[in-house]
Amino acid sequence: MSECINIANPYYVQLHLLADCIFNCSYCYLKGYDRKSMLSKKQINTFLNKFNNYYQDFGLRVHINLTGGDIWLYEGISEIFFLLKKHKVVQDFSLLLNSLWHEDSYKIIKDNKNSISLVQLNIDAINNRDKDIQFLSKEKIRFVIKILLSNNEHYYIKQLNILRKLLRKYPDLLVSIDRICPTNQSNKKMRLSVKNLKKKLLEIRSIANNVLIVDDPLVSAFFNKAKSESEKGFWNGCVIPSGGLAVYPNGEVKLCARIPNYTTGFTINNFTLEHYIDSFSEIRNQQMKNCNKCPISAQCQGGCPATSFIDKNIITKDHQCLYE
Description:
Number of helices: 12
Strand order of the largest sheet: 7-6-5-4-3-2-1-8-9
CATH class: Alpha Beta
CATH architecture: Alpha-Beta Barrel
Radius of gyration: 19 Å
CATH superfamily: Aldolase class I
Number of strands: 9
Shape: globular
Strand content: 5-15%
Structural class: alpha/beta
Order of helices and strands: EHHEHEHEHHEHEHEHEEHHH
């Protein structure tokens, strides 16, 4: 791999261990996948071994986003943590969870807390689970509560009510924002208009401004916080393809978890980082060409191309472009 390739270090690898989950959310990116589908320990080990040479030759490290489905449904989940730590190329990992509902979750997280950079909890699942928040706070593990913005007003109000309740109890609680990204025609109606997106973003900021964590490049630009998370070591911007990738439970390598219907042709078995980046680097270049006249393109970096994939079956600039 040429040293002149512009690639994030650490490089983000999102491992979807399994498709099974305690919920059945309509907007889930794994919707339609076999619930019994899961990555084996052998597959994970094979994939990480492919990065060892990049670590030895170029000092490239990998940050793992460990998620599902729900990782607590993965049989032998504690062995996955041991496997990740065995690889020197793995710098650290984040856990994208519903909650810490599993009886062994506290022990597993405590045993691995020196390798965990962040725990993300789902606001739908964390309500009335104060013990999870108290545990993570006591162990000094950085965590955020994720809220999802969609066109479902009832759901939005429900989230805000939970958020206000949590912030009254825990005023330093960190909050992150995610936007719905339609993966099929039926849930396109869940996507917010630009006008309503702006309205909701401002409302959330009025509630949680001091504890708002922003890693969405479009939202970052809106809040003029484009550099805030990147300065803390988080990849701020679209991961396609130089920032990272997603590995699905069936072993497919995806450009991003938000675009499950885009087939890259890469799997755990045939993946090499050089060929992967060579194959898809033009995607990001083309996306930015669509934004070359925009005065805030340097901040939002074209936003999230996954938001518009469902419309034209191509990857282009953010559907919710705030400048237009």
